[in-house]
């Protein structure tokens, strides 16, 4: 049989085998082509060797993955995708689960829950019981938060079905962020509420009954659009960290006037600094974020 015909026969046989007889095919391909390659000049030898390597990758791509996996962790058949580092040395967050896990580690006092749309609607309605009392007992609030935590853990929402993220800082705020499409890292709406609010209006496009959170939501809408337009690939990660800076909403003094409360003349109400600059979030941690009253902001953002 002519060499070219033999080569074609071996190639077709190996391709049809689907890797079942991978070792047999490699031995035959290698022995046949090695004989041909050794008789070639050096320059042509290198080209032929490269062609042979390309053929191996074409027919048996899984073999190379197994070898690399074996070298890295001693577990053949399991490939691990390396986590890339950003130019500033920080790990790139490529998935929703990575973003939420890192946020949980960075802001341990902020509770993070995930839901499908229908599950969140049920959760919002369950919070409405807090609104039945004129005075909210702190112990009742804590019990409801703990109940919500256990209920959320029991949902076992698949990460590719997550459509709503709840960020809860007890006694401070509850932020609702929606993702579109579900399971993506693309935020499309946000709302802030008191931890004592509950009902069907608690959703990412809803509005709080409290003026302080109405102002925060207006500012958050601008922040969300900023992150989406400036750094769309990191918008969710940066936005969630920016939201975390509001854990000091009622304790951090204004970075300009150095006061905690200022009169809002249009509402005749004393309000805390409700603005958090979002241009500096990538460089400043949530606990170091500046805060400004509406009238003290040096720029509208």
TrEMBL record:
It holds the Pfam family Med27. It is found in: Nucleus. Its main location: nucleus. One of its GO terms (molecular function) is transcription coactivator activity. Keywords: Nucleus, Transcription, Transcription regulation. Belongs to the Mediator complex subunit 27 family. This is Mediator of RNA polymerase II transcription subunit 27. It comes from Panicum hallii var. hallii.
